[in-house]
Structures are given as C-alpha cells and as structure tokens.
C-alpha cells in the first residue's frame, strides 16, 4: 500500500460514530469525498453464492484488480466494514481497481457505513437450500470452514454426526443467518433500489459474463462486455480453486426433507418484506405453503 495518510484520516480513524454507525457531518463529508475518488466493486454475497469465483473474474476483467480485505478479521464469516482498510484503499493513488468481498448483512450500521462512502453493493439471490447443501459439503471437507463457522460454532464432532443430525444443524443453526441476511438486503433494496444491485443465480448461470458486466457497471466501472466474457473464460477452468462447488439448482432437495424445508419456509415467512423473493429463496414451485397464525 502506498496510501498517504493525512491528518484528516488519522483523526477519522479515532472518531467514534453513533451506535448505529453515523458520523458527525464534518467526518461524514470527508468520507463522502474519499468515496468519490475511485469506483469500488463491493460484493456482499452470502457464502456459497459463487462469490469467490465472481470476485476473481471481476479482478481479471478489471485488468488485474486488487482484492482488499475490508473487514478487520475473517473468522466467523459475517463481516463488518473496517474503517482503516477503506480509508487506505481510497487514499492509495497507485492501487489497482479495487474489489471487496464480504459476507455482510445489511444491518443499519453497515448500511450507514456504505451510504457514507457512496458504495453501491452487489448481492446474489440464490436458493437457500442449495447454498446450505454446498455449505454442508464444505464443512464435510474443509477444516478451515469448520473452524470459521457462520456466526455460530460448528460442533467439534460434526464429521461424526448422522446425516439427519447434520441436516438439523444446517436448518436450525446456519439457515437463520441466511434468512436474516436476505431480509436485511431486501429492506435495503426496497429503500434504495439504485444503490443495491441484485443478481440472480439462475441468470448468472445462463449468462455469467452478463452478470459480471452488470455488477461492474453498477459499481462505476466502464468495462467492455467482451472483457467480461474473456475473464469468465479464463477463470472458468480454475473454478474449483475458487470454491465453485456444483452450481446445480435443486441440490438442496437431496439434502433436506420436506419437514426441513417447511421449517425454513416458516423462518422466511416471519419477514414480510421477503414475500417477493420467497419462491426464489426456497426453490421455486416446490415452495411449501406456510401461513402464520395472526
């Protein structure tokens, strides 16, 4: 990093925002000015929504983009924006085009943070049972994933659990994070549709370069579609290295019973704002019909 840390940056790092992440106007104006210095592709995909593959393709399309870890630590997976890393990225005049990838909910403090810099995030809408199936596969094979968890502690004996016990754990413990994640982003998108770019996994599968092109344009990059197509072609052969699992729709039905899916549907039904997305999040025509008591 060759960022020139000025006095404003030094003071800003130690300035305490309000409990919901709002800074006083003096510092907010400074952060807004930083945000206008350069575009930034900020992917806030949920785990197992092709985010690692997508960010690699984006860096390739940007001609050698720079991946920045925008959270303080990665352990636990649910990221919170870390101010010093953002300041450094904006002040580094020699930095390559910047890409960030953070498993982040759009909770109020996080929204205020992004709005302060003028960042326009990109999310991926995907069937939750399919993501849980892919996450389950990763827990079965990757000790680092088991150590990280997803805002939860993975049982130390996860590998020895029965298939039914693993399915229960994924639905009862892991799935609530996904439901809350999409509920927060649906609210943010409803409030600011021009700010939040919502990609859909089936469209991504059918036109991968088109999804990448749309994300980059949303973030403020003027990257030709042909370069996006070339980037996808180049990265596709190494997709397994970038944690691109099966990418097959409907796999969740092989992992979870109708009772499991009904429990998941009940969680989704608690958030009324999710109704327009529910069929996509629970698997299209096989969505259980859930009615909560009034």
The tally of strands reads 5
**Count of DSSP-assigned helices:** 14
Order of helices and strands: HHEHEHEHEHHHEHHHHHH
Strand-pairing-aware structural class: mainly alpha
> β content, as a range?
5-15%
Major sheet characteristics = 3 strands, parallel
In the CATH scheme, the class would be Alpha Beta
What is the C-alpha radius of gyration, as a whole number of Å? 20 Å
Shape: globular
Distance between the termini: 56 Å
Task: Output the CATH topology.
Answer: Rossmann fold
- CATH architect. name: 3-Layer(aba) Sandwich
> Which blocks of ≥5 consecutive residues have pLDDT under 50?
285-294
| Main β-sheet, spatial strand arrangement | 1-3-2
Mean pLDDT: 90
Helix content: 40-55%
CATH superfamily: P-loop containing nucleotide triphosphate hydrolases
What topology does this entry show?
Elements: H1 7-13, H2 25-35, E1 40-43, H3 51-61, E2 66-68, H4 83-91, E3 98-101, H5 108-117, E4 122-125, H6 128-141, H7 143-148, H8 163-191, E5 197-200, H9 201-206, H10 208-219, H11 225-236, H12 252-255, H13 258-269, H14 278-282
């Amino acid at each position: 990093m060759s960022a020139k840390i000025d006095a404003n940056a030094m003071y800003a790092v130690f300035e305490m925002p309000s409990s919901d992440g709002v800074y006083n106007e003096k510092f907010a104006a400074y952060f807004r000015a930083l945000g206008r210095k350069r575009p930034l592709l900020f992917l806030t995909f949920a785990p197992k929504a092709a985010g690692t593959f997508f960010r690699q393709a984006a860096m390739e399309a940007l001609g050698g983009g720079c991946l920045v870890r925008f959270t303080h630590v990665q352990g636990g997976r649910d990221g919170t924006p870390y101010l010093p890393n953002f300041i450094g990225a904006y002040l580094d005049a020699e930095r390559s085009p910047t890409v960030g990838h953070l498993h982040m909910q759009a909770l109020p403090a996080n929204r205020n943070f992004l709005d302060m810099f003028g960042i326009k995030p990109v999310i991926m809408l995907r069937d939750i049972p399919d993501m849980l199936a892919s996450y389950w596969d990763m827990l079965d094979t990757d000790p680092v994933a088991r150590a990280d968890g997803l805002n939860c502690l993975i049982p130390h004996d996860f590998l020895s659990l029965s298939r039914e016990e693993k399915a229960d754990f994924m639905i009862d413990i892991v799935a609530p994070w996904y439901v809350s994640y999409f509920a927060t982003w649906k609210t943010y998108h409803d409030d600011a549709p021009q700010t939040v770019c919502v990609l859909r996994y089936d469209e991504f599968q059918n036109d991968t370069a088109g999804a990448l092109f749309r994300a980059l344009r949303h973030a403020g990059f003027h990257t030709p579609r042909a370069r996006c197509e070339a980037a996808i072609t180049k990265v596709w052969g190494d997709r397994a290295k970038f944690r691109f699992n099966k990418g097959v729709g409907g796999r969740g039905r092989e992992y979870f019973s109708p009772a499991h899916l009904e429990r998941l549907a009940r969680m989704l039904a608690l958030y009324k704002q999710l109704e327009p997305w529910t069929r996509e999040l629970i698997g299209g025509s096989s969505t259980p019909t859930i009615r909560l008591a009034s």
